[in-house]
From TrEMBL:
Name this polypeptide is given: SLIT and NTRK-like protein 1
Highest taxon listed in the record's lineage: Eukaryota
Organism in which the protein naturally occurs: Nibea albiflora
């Protein structure tokens, strides 16, 4: 009778889909130790969900899920992988992360969600990632970022957002976030204010800003001054002006404040002065007038430099490596 009850319970569990399978014990994934760290390689296993799978409960591990079909992550998606210290979700066609998807991953220090189709970061997108230090989200379709999305990630140091569709960062997005490395290359950013953005990342060690359509006007003076005053050993990407036309192709570092704010530096704009008439020339030069000839160096916008297309981004970020092993309690 007892055996029958056990078998019935097992059958009910299977029918209800509550049975979890250990990805290592059942060899669903490749599990190998590399330099003392367990790597669970589940690359290209056609997974659409992970809710009926589980990882080892007795040791920490890196969970590699590249190239699956995890297009949407639901709440508690990783509840059975609580010993993961890093999570790779590249190339999954991922377009939606439902708040609560990362609950239970309080030990994860590195999250890689690059090369997907993510369009927005909502307020609670990263809920549960209390120890996150490294977030790689480049090569997505990211446009909208909630100002509070990183607010509880008070250990986040590296943020990689290059090659997205970001036109502006929300004010106070880095409040209480200790960012040291920030990659914003290849977006649609025209300006980056000091108040509410730059002032909140005083410990920056690397900031990459290339390949954005920078609008070099008065609003960019604060960025110019900030870049000039951050530590000399910090790595800084070039800010190349796309607008206005007269500064197109210019390096912000080599552009003066007077160039950025001509309206605040009054003077005669000779490009707007009409050429003298023949009568005016005759009166000024006496009986032997010299015919007026248009200046061969007529003022006008400089010839734009070569097109700054999207540069290939290095997949290797060896200089941004962070500790990934949590200290056992």
């Amino acid at each position: 009778m007892l055996l029958w009850i056990v078998l019935l319970n097992a059958a009910l569990c299977v029918a209800s889909g509550n049975v979890t399978r250990d990805v290592c014990k059942e060899q669903i994934c490749s599990c190998n130790e590399i330099e003392g760290d367990l790597h669970i390689d589940c690359e290209k296993r056609s997974f659409t969900t992970l809710q009926h799978l589980t990882g080892p409960s007795s040791q920490f591990y890196h969970l590699l899920l590249h190239g699956n079909s995890l297009s949407r992550l639901f709440p508690n998606e990783f509840a059975n992988f609580y010993n993961a210290v890093s999570l790779h979700l590249e190339n999954n066609g991922l377009h939606d992360i439902v708040p609560g998807a990362f609950l239970g991953l309080q030990l994860v220090k590195r999250l890689h969600i690059n090369n997907n189709k993510i369009r927005s970061f909502r307020k609670s997108t990263f809920l549960g990632l209390d120890d996150l230090e490294y977030l790689q989200a480049d090569f997505n379709l990211l446009r909208d970022i909630d100002p509070a999305v990183f607010r509880d990630l008070n250990k986040l140091e590296v943020l990689i957002l290059n090659d997205n569709l970001i036109s502006a960062l929300p004010i106070n997005v880095f409040q209480h976030v200790p960012i040291t490395h920030l990659d914003l290359r290849g977006n649609r950013i025209k300006t980056l204010p000091y108040e509410g953005i730059l002032e909140q990342i005083p410990g920056i060690a690397e900031v990459l800003l290339e390949d954005n359509p920078w609008d070099c006007n008065c609003d960019l003076v604060s960025l110019k001054e900030w870049l000039e005053n951050i530590p000399h050993n910090a790595l800084i990407g070039r800010v190349i002006c796309e607008a206005p036309t007269r500064l197109q192709g210019s390096d912000l570092n080599e552009t003066s404040e007077a160039d950025l704010c001509p309206s605040e530096n009054p003077g005669v704009d000779t490009s707007l002065v009409a050429p003298p008439t023949q009568e005016e020339i005759s009166e000024s030069r006496g009986p032997h007038p010299t015919p007026y000839k248009p200046n061969g160096d007529a003022s006008g916008p400089p010839t734009p430099g070569g097109h700054h297309g999207a540069k290939s981004r290095s997949k290797s970020r060896e200089n941004w490596q962070l500790k990934t092993k949590p200290t056992p309690v």
